[in-house]
Amino acid sequence: MKTIGVLGIQGAIEKHLDSVAAIGCRGLWVKTAADLKKIDGIILPGGESTSIGKQLEWFGMMNPLREAIAHGMPAFGTCAGMILLAKDIEAYTQARIGLMDITVRRNAYGSQLDSFITDLQVKGIQGKIPAVFIRAPRIEKCGKDVQVLASYKDHPVLVRQKNMLAASFHPELTEDTRLHAYFGKML
Amino acid sequence: MKNTKANDWQVKVGLAEMLKNGVIMDVTDVEQAKIAEDAGAIAVMALERVPSDIRKQGGVARMSDPKMIKEIKKAVSIPVMAKCRIGHFAEAQILQALGIDFIDESEVLTPADEEFHIHKHAFKIPFVCGCRNLGEALRRIGEGAAMMRTKGEAGTGNIVEAVRHMRALMNGIHRLQGCSKEELMTEAKNLGAPYDLVCYVAEHGKLPVPNFSAGGVATPADAALMRQLGAESVFVGSGIFKSSNPKKVAKAIVEATTHYDNPDKLAKLSENLGEPMHGIDVRQLGENELFAGRGW
């Protein structure tokens, strides 16, 4: 059985662990650099990207995590997790992993009053999947190695670059586990 | 997909999920808001006076000046919350119009209605409410609160009431888990709580919304204690900006909330933080000086 870690610094960690269990993988709450050795892939959950990024640096986890992903460990960033993966962030400088060739804009869809749910068509998945956008970041630009798997209103919202998968939205907040299963196949 | 009530609810509780495993800090101006954000806060609560000053100064405590809330919203990228008085739905309407992210219908302000709380399902913005036990929590969730926080006793720097309320809440949850199905309607009657929510708690062993702690957290150890008792995040009010070194204390409380189960880390980050907030022995307070008894 494969083990999927969920970066357990801050945010919707439990919901991702529920989804991991639902696709038949072992889940691990990852809090230290040593935990990275015990997992086959990692989910970077939603939450506050500034807080997660800072704490990764304070606790000496940023470099080990970046190296693990750079060496091929599959990573799935949702919302704040996508911001942590992004190479460029418009208008903010903040601590991040920065390995994925995308430019994101934080809170681009507005405040909580602008949060919404929609259905998305995803390349490689039959039927539509429900997508919950909460104070969501928007992908403004993608590099040439980045594959767009789903878009919403002319902006990519689900992208993949080799071992990295990133979503503007929260698949863990719905009962639909097809995106987690997709990530499971990347391990 | 249509924007239905069920969707609204999912989006409200969704933001509360994102705020788990973190620290929400009370701030009274832009400078404090920036200190909070730099220290790793996941949200700020914008208010004119921290609870310990409200306690000291007395008078009627109301919603903050919208201008001050807007300035704080502009200064930080993390979510901004603000408080309205219990039952004061017009203050809540104003806060929603400001486009902030969460409203706290709070006992720290002077209640506007001693009989009814706000019908929170009528709002698009999510609400957090205080509770002292399971029945109170489920009544607020029934009205539409998307996040709960145990009340504690705000502005005292004393954790004893926060512990009392969290223990009462968790005991209530554990009790329901041991009940047979035929007992649940009687439990709902005794708790004064909606039956469907009582059934949810009995089945899942937790509230249907995230469950945070507030009211009295002043040190990293306090934050770790509340996390171990079941709090999924921690609100810190006066404890940070009434300490001698707010920057250091704020960062240490954030770290303690993450590593609440690691005593070695807690020992290290608790070192040399300066004077904590002075604090009040809750037993020295009169019945009419307690905030937690406001609301039902």
Contiguous low-pLDDT stretches of chain B (5 residues minimum) are none
Quick one: biggest sheet of chain B?
8 strands, parallel
Please give the number of β-strands of chain A. Answer: 12
Give the radius of gyration of chain B: 18 Å
Physical arrangement of strands within the biggest beta sheet of chain A: 2-1-3-4-12-11-10
* H/E element sequence of chain A: EHEEHHEHEEEEEEEEH
Main sheet: strands, sense, barrel of chain A: 7 strands, mixed
Query: How does the overall form of chain A come out from the CA principal axes?
Result: globular
Largest interface: A-B, 39 and 35 residues
SS elements, strand count of chain B? 8
How many helical stretches of chain B? 13
Pairing-aware structural class of the strands and helices of chain B?
alpha/beta
Name the poorly predicted regions of chain A.
Answer: none
Helix content of chain B: 40-55%
Instruction: Give me the Rg of chain A, rounded.
Output: 15 Å
Strand content of chain A: 25-35%
Query: How many H/I helices of chain A?
Result: 5
Helix proportion of chain A? 10-25%
Mean pLDDT rating of chain A = 97
